[in-house]
Hints:
Layout: H1 3-13, H2 16-20, E1 23-31, E2 37-39, H3 40-51, E3 57-66, E4 70-78, E5 84-94, E6 97-108
Parallel strand pairs: 1-6
Antiparallel strand pairs: 1-2, 3-4, 4-5, 5-6
Amino acid sequence: MSIFEIHAEARSNKDIDAYAATLHEDYEFISHMDGMTMNREKSMEMFTFLMNNDDFVTHESRCLYENDEVMVTHAVMGFPDGTREAVLAFHQLKDGKIIRMETGATLLK
Length: 109
């Protein structure tokens, strides 16, 4: 199963452990929308909060490209604060896990 498929299934099942298992111990999250950078621990806090919130919804999630080195995804996401964003994410892979994720997001009205 690809990392994209694992993530989609984990989000659908709200299985934070399955999601976390795909992240490298040196994982780094970078948001270009606000310049935020987080390590694995802080990222997992955010992902856990979102996945446990019924107001966090992912629509039209798709994998644009995935191989052993990178994965590129796009989705429309609805957040607990009522905002929606179109999110393009670049995932750098190392040792079969995501070591770095960079997102570019466009706020939708």
